Amino acid sequence: MNVQRRTHFIWGLVLLGVALVILLRALGMIPAGVDDLINRAWPALLVFGGLAVFLRERLPLGSVIALIISGGLVAAMTTVAFSNRSVEMRDDYREPIALTVADSITLLRVQIVTLSTDVELVRSLEARAISGEFVGSSESRLQVDYNEAPDNTAALVITETQPNEFPMLDAVGRGRFQLELPAGVLLDVDFRGATGTLTLNMSDLSLERLNFNLAQGNSVVTLPSYRPQASQPDASLGTLIVQDGDLRLVIPSDVAARLELQRGGSGLEPLFDALIYNYLVGDILEARNFDAASVQMRYTLTVPRGRIIIEAPGS
After folding, report:
1. For the chain, how far is it from start to end, CA to CA, in angstroms?
2. Domain that residue 240 falls in
3. CA–CA dist 305, 246 (Å, integer)
4. What pLDDT does residue 262 have?
């Protein structure tokens, strides 16, 4: 009798859940993304019904087990569906960027935050122009804020957001974002990305500082042949973090770098030219001509689960 009452209870719980969904849908209280998943997941009720009938006479808690299996099946299929969609490139939404930096501006601070997006930063062909374009999912939005201050500095903040907490499955996917930065102004760049490929070609740019944190993906960074003006020679110019992926750093031959490596016990040895760099105690790579070089750069490279690769242009 206990098993029979438990069976009736489970069926009653399922019917109550179905009725509640129908009521909330009629009242327009279910987010579109959740409603989309419900429409796709309703065949799980058939799976539950079939398993409940099959297991009822064979196991004491057949209906409970059927409910758990059906719920697990829906969760697994949802995860797989979103994972497969998330790697597809989308072009449903486009957001162009076209800005002009005033002649009085001497320092431009750039802050970029992205989600599942491949990002590329390059030099603009126009001395005071900022241009670019975001192409991605209709579930993404790009917010661009640009302000110039009286102290001759400007701030450019670019943020990718996902307005819908529960996105539509058909609209899920990756984006790509390219931004061209002006060569005629000092740059302080800060980037935060969730997942994607990060390509920073800073050649011919007046890069004062660079910080980035990429959660998942590979990064390729080309440093410029430029001597920072706003930092002391012994000051660090930033921290480059790739939490899950490889970091490839391209350093011009006329730039002497001192790189503090934080590899998080990954066991992956850095790849570099031993004719150019000394591998010092403390996990530090230092150019052999560092003390005598006119252009010096100090960075911290944090790559706990990937490879650090240091190379010269064209190698």
Report:
1. 77
2. 93-311
3. 8
4. 95
